[in-house]
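A quick aside before the break. I want you to see a complete sequence-to-structure record at least once, exactly as it would be stored in a machine-readable document. Don't worry about memorizing anything.
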Amino acid sequence: GLIGVKPEHAWYVGDHPFDDVYGAHLIGMTAVWVNRSGGRFEGKVSPDATVGSLTELAGLLNIDLSAPEAARP
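That is the input. The structure line, written in tokens, reads:
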């Protein structure tokens, strides 16, 4: 890739079942679906993870948002 990261080592985060989840899977990325409405996923392939907001993504990445920014990984 342009930034030196292989698709299998990257996460794609988005809210659209086809464009974001299916598209990420097509190129070998981990797909995280942002489900803000709490609705049921209806797509060709299931996401690898689901979050209700981008703030929840920090938990998947083991980032403590209450810690000072300098202490975050």
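Two observations worth writing down. Residues 26 and 45 are 10 Å apart (CA to CA). The chain has a mean pLDDT of 87. We'll return to this after the break.
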